[in-house]
């Protein structure tokens, strides 16, 4: 009888887990992703290093790759623990970078790391098991998705506003593109620059926009009607910035030969 129970329990273990220790009710994608992202995060915490700029978006994409209703209970456990591990990882990094006390944030971080250790086993989460090719491929995939998504949003906005010109085209041929609406997108902040025909501070406020994938030298000084664009003004007044897509125009009445990148805003959409 004893032999029967030993064989029976051993059979259950074989059915419940794969050769790699993966439970049968967990997909390869979630099992491997949960393991690799946990190792990657913990390596950064231990080394006080820096995560790739696209890592958080990559992880969020992984966490939402399968709806909760489609997950098994074990998959939900992995995903939820990883979600809270990442949240507390961000708190730890903020404390580390600011020179603050990491005691409390590390305590919470370790709580969720311990939970992941119980799922995967301590030896499976050592830094030497990090699959760097997996991480790199995940990051590249996320950048590709984001680029395609951003391009789709840009094209939809330009179509909706009936735009064919871009700021880049206008800046290189300004005299021939006066009074023609054009598209520009990027990060805008409040500034006090007024020049040429845009000197009506009573009715206008000025924002300096650095184009997406551009730099300071590519900036545009955009002039917004105060009343029409008050929601943006309120966002910027305390030193904040905002990501926007803009329909702008250079009025011929305000244009002076040789001027820099200055235009009047007709419409915006927050990103």
UniProtKB/TrEMBL annotation:
Annotated keywords: Signal
UniProt signal peptide: 1-21
UniProt-recorded name of the protein: Lipoprotein
Organism: Heyndrickxia shackletonii
């Amino acid at each position: 009888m004893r032999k029967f129970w030993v064989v029976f329990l051993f059979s259950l273990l074989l059915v419940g887990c794969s050769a790699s220790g993966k439970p049968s009710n967990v997909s390869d994608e979630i099992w491997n992703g949960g393991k690799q992202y946990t190792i990657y995060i913990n390596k950064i915490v231990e080394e006080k290093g820096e995560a790739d700029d696209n890592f958080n978006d990559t992880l969020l994409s992984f966490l939402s790759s399968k709806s909760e209703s489609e997950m098994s209970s074990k998959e939900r456990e992995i995903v939820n623990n990883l979600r809270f591990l990442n949240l507390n990882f961000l708190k730890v990094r903020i404390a580390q970078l600011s020179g603050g006390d990491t005691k409390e944030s590390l305590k919470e971080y370790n709580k969720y790391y311990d939970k992941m250790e119980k799922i995967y086993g301590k030896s499976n989460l050592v830094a030497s098991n990090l699959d760097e090719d997996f991480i790199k491929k995940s990051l590249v995939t996320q950048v590709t998705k984001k680029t395609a998504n951003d391009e789709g949003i840009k094209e939809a906005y330009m179509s909706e506003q009936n735009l064919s010109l871009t700021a880049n085209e206008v800046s290189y041929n300004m005299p021939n593109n006066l009074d023609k609406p054009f598209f520009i997108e990027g990060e805008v902040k409040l500034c006090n620059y007024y020049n040429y025909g845009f000197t009506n501070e009573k009715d206008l406020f000025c924002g300096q926009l650095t184009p997406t994938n551009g730099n300071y030298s590519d900036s545009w000084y955009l002039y917004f009607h105060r009343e029409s664009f008050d929601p943006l003004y309120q966002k910027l007044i305390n030193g904040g910035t905002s990501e926007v897509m803009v329909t702008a125009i250079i009025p011929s009445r305000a244009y002076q030969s040789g001027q820099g990148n200055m235009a009047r805003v007709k419409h915006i959409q927050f990103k």
